[in-house]
Amino acid sequence: MRAVLYYGREDVRIEDIAEPSPKTGEVKLRVLYNGICGSDLHEYYHGPIMTRTRPHPLTGVKNPVVLGHEFCGEVVENGRNVDDLKSGDLVAVEPIQTCGTCYWCGIGQYNHCPKPAVHGYNREGGGLAEFTVVPRSMVHKLPAGISAQQGALVEPMAVSYHAIARAQPASGQTFVVHGGGPIGVGAFLTLKALGDIRVIVCEPSAQRRAILSRLGAEHVLDPAGLNVVEAIRDLTDGRGADASIDAAGVPAAFKAALASTAPLGHLVVVAMHMEPFPFNALALLAGEVSVTGSKTYCNDYPAVIELMTRGAYPLEGWVSTIPMADFIERGIVPLTHQQATKIMVDVAGGR
C-alpha cells in the first residue's frame, strides 16, 4: 500500500509498505481523508520534534514513520474482542495512546500522560496510508449525516474546543481569537456554536480574513494594518476582551492578546511558540490575567461530534483536498505560505 513516510527534516517520501493486520482489540481502517496539521509543518521544517530518532518508550517506534494524525476512515476488519463495529462504519480517530497507569491517566486527564504516543508520529502506521490499524479505544463511530471529510476535521476541532473550554466561556462574553489558521477558525466556529458570545478575530492574511468573514465573523481585524489592542478596546467600550485565544504562535499575537484582555480575564495559548520571547509582565500583574496553556484535547471528541451534527463546523470555503502524491507541493508548501487554510489529503482517491 502507498504511504507518506517521515525520515527526518525536509525528508518525506511516498513509498510502498506492507498492509497491516489488526491484532486483538484493534481495528483496521481504510483511510479516507487525512488533514495536514500545523504540527506537520513544524515536523517537516524543524523536526524531529514529535517523531523520534530513538525508540518511543511506549511503542518502540522510531523514524521513519508514517505521518498523519487527523483522519477519518471506514472499518474494514476487526481484531479479536472487537464486536461493536462492523465493516463500512465511518469513524474518526483520536490518535493519542497513553500509558494508562500514571497519575494523570488514573484521574482521566490523559492528555498529560508523560509518555504519550501519537498515531502518525510514534506509533506503527498513520493516517497518510491507504490502511492503518488502531486500538478500539481510539475509535469514535460517527453518526449518520457526518461526512468523511467532516470526520477528518474532528481532531483539529477538538483542539480548538479544548482551548475554548480552558477559557471558561459564558453567555454575554467577548472573546478575541488571535490567528485565523485552522485552530483559530475552529475556535471561532466553536464559540459561534456555543451561542451568546461575541467573537473578534485578528489575522494578518487577507485571504484568511475573507474566509472568516464568509464563515460569519463580524469583526475581523488586520494586525498589520491597525493597532489591534486599541481596536479591541474600542469594540469593548474600553474594557478589553473577557478571554483571548492565542492561535497564532507568534510573539506579537501573544503580546497583543495580553494587552487587550480585560482584568481578571483569561488568555489561553493553544499555538506552538517555537522560540522563547520576552513580554511585559506588568500587563499580567496589573490586570490579574490568567494565562494558561491548552494541550491537545481530553474527552472532547464527543462534544465536537455532537456540535458537528448540528452544523457547527462547515467545510465550505476553507477546506480543500489534494491527492497523496501532492503532499509536499500542494500541501506543505501552500500552508507554509498561508496560501490555504485547511488542506486534507484524499487518501482513498475520492472513494
Essential attributes:
351 residues, alpha/beta, Quinone Oxidoreductase, Chain A, domain 1, Rossmann fold, 2 domains, seven-stranded mixed beta sheet, six-stranded parallel beta sheet, 10 helices, 26% strand, globular
Written overview of the protein:
Helices cover 28% and strands 26% of the residues. By secondary structure, it is of the alpha/beta class. The protein folds into 2 domains: 2-147 and 315-346, Medium-chain alcohol dehydrogenases, catalytic domain (Quinone Oxidoreductase, Chain A, domain 1), CATH 3.90.180; 163-293, Rossmann fold, CATH 3.40.50. Strands 3, 5, 6, 9, 10, 17 and 18 form a 7-stranded mixed sheet that branches. Helix 3 (148-166) packs across helix 4 (182-194), helix 3 packs across helix 9 and helix 6 runs parallel beside helix 7 (251-260). The longest helix has 19 residues, at 148-166. The protein is globular. The model has no long low-confidence stretch (mean pLDDT 95).
List the helices and strands and how they pair.
Layout: E1 2-8, E2 11-16, E3 26-35, H1 38-46, E4 65-66, E5 70-78, E6 90-93, E7 96-97, H2 103-106, E8 117-118, E9 131-135, E10 139-141, H3 148-166, E11 174-178, H4 182-194, E12 198-202, H5 206-214, E13 219-221, H6 228-235, E14 241-246, H7 251-260, E15 261-269, H8 281-287, E16 290-293, H9 301-309, E17 319-323, H10 327-336, E18 342-346
Helix pairs in contact: 3-4, 3-9, 6-7
